[in-house]
Amino acid sequence: MNRAEKLRAAYNKNGIDYLQFLYDELEGEISTMYPSKPSKPMLLPKHTPEDVLAYAEKLMAYGSEEKDYKAKKEVYQTEKNNLRDAMMEIIKEDVGFYNAVPKERQDKVWYYIIENSDNYPYSIRGKAEEVLSTFYD
């Protein structure tokens, strides 16, 4: 079961109250995946030819480490985005967003909700309920 499925299962079993707890836990799990950036080697002033050769070797190694870092960072970002998207879908379904907001306005309304909340499930859900009750009841 992937993280998004765990989030959905937890919501189905325990409701919105448990969503924040599990989201934080899974986000913490994902944050351990964040790779450390390799440091770029430096060539010091007053260097010898041997220093230049050693620098060239370190620079070659740095190039491959940098590629690995970027690949790992992309995996991390994808995992984080997938988790956030899953949480957002759960909230949208919970507040009846898809039924209340016309399809052509859903992106704009959801953007407004996200921009005016503090990125926690309770806040997003509260803002969504407020907007839906104000404009779509």
Reported for the largest beta sheet, the result is: none
Helix content: over 70%
Domain module count: 2
Distance between the termini: 37 Å
Number of helical runs? 6
- Average of per-residue pLDDT values: 86
Let me know the number of strands.
0
Short description, anyone?
By secondary structure, the chain is mostly helical.
Write the layout of secondary structure elements.
Elements: H1 3-14, H2 16-31, H3 49-95, H4 97-100, H5 106-115, H6 121-135
Helix pairs in contact: 1-2, 1-3, 2-3, 3-6, 5-6
What does the model show?
By secondary structure, this protein is mainly alpha-helical. The protein folds into two domains: 1-95; 97-137, no CATH class. The chain has helices at 3-14, 16-31, 49-95, 97-100, 106-115, 121-135. Helix 1 (3-14) packs antiparallel against helix 2, helix 3 crosses helix 6 and helix 5 (106-115) crosses helix 6. It is elongated, with a radius of gyration of 23 Å. The model has no long low-confidence stretch (mean pLDDT 86).
Salient structural properties:
mainly alpha, 2 domains, 137 residues
